[in-house]
Amino acid sequence: MRTRFWRQRTNIISATLTLIASLLLTGCFGNDEEDWNGKNISGLMPELEFDLINSQGKSVSGDDYSGRVRMLFFGFTSCPDVCPTALQKLNQVTSGLDPELQDEVLTLFVSVDPKRDTPERLAKYVDFFGDNIVGLTGKEPQLRELAKRYRTTFGYDEPDADGNYAVSHSSAIYVFDREGNPRLLMRPDLSGEEIRHDLAALIQEDA
Prior knowledge:
Blueprint: H1 2-26, E1 39-40, E2 51-54, E3 59-61, E4 69-75, H2 82-95, E5 105-111, H3 119-128, E6 133-137, H4 140-149, E7 154-156, E8 167-169, E9 173-176, E10 182-186, H5 192-206
Parallel strand pairs: 4-5, 5-6
Antiparallel strand pairs: 1-10, 2-3, 2-6, 4-9, 7-8, 9-10
């Protein structure tokens, strides 16, 4: 169990470093005129676009959630620590915004483990972490295409004797503005206050 845990954690760190390295090779992280805590990815990533199913089993696209600042995060419900830690932090971040700003932010949690993460299971999982979060998933080819779109990847470890397996994935959080334009890449080491500062600035910028 401990070996599988550390292998998963290593894979997550590796996937995140690969993503950040690919952005660095592209050039600068954009124009940092604003005092952002996250990395400015304006113009370095495509706009928010996907065709998946939500935790109610309905087909949805990126346009269905337009009008709000959106945070996109890849993970899976069986994740032992990285996913719940990140989602708890994001819930605290949005809950800590001024009341009139809280509904202006939405977290999109994309499960890359469709074999286990049914819509019903996703619904129970995301509901635990607050109201302003949507669970999404799809068929594996769709999920791989979406991950590739944002220069990351995911993979599955070999199942153990009980059929359990770990999933490697990026721990980065992508932030898009109301129009779906890519704006920021949030590293997992940022504090909740740093993320909140950036979200508030984006909300007020687009108001």
